[in-house]
Task: structure prediction
Amino acid sequence: MQKLLTAAGLAAAALAVAACASSSSSTSSSAQSTAQAAGGSSASTLMMRTIDGAQVLTNSAGLTLYWFAPDTSTTSKCTGSCATYWPPVKGPATAGSGVTGTLGVITRPDGTMQATYNGHPLYTYAGDSAPGQANGNGKNLSGGLWYEVTVSGAAPAPSASTSSHHGGYGY
Result:
């Protein structure tokens, strides 16, 4: 009788392990798909798209790419919760049609690689839910200003609407 209970216990344990393994692999696939949609694939392709009259960079899913004013050409200042709202574009990236700037990579504080364009680390924005949106452009959030990446790579001219916000919270 004890052998029968031991065998049944082993079978139950094996089923539990198998269920956990299949559950975790589907979760990681789902997380990977979400990361890829947000620009997080390891082979990001950058595209050019006209949004609100400007030629901007997008990821292969059509989501607008942004740069963060406090960043440098070698350092991302958007980490922790900032990177939740502004997911970094994983590097290296490849240039699609219309993309003429210089592509590169930096190493983020967590050791991952982030794509850059003309020296700007690249991000998507959680507030953009569909291709063609640029809801993050000009936002003053997470300690600095955010701008859509133009194909020309030119920095936006200071304007009254963006230069008057100094609180860092976008209000």
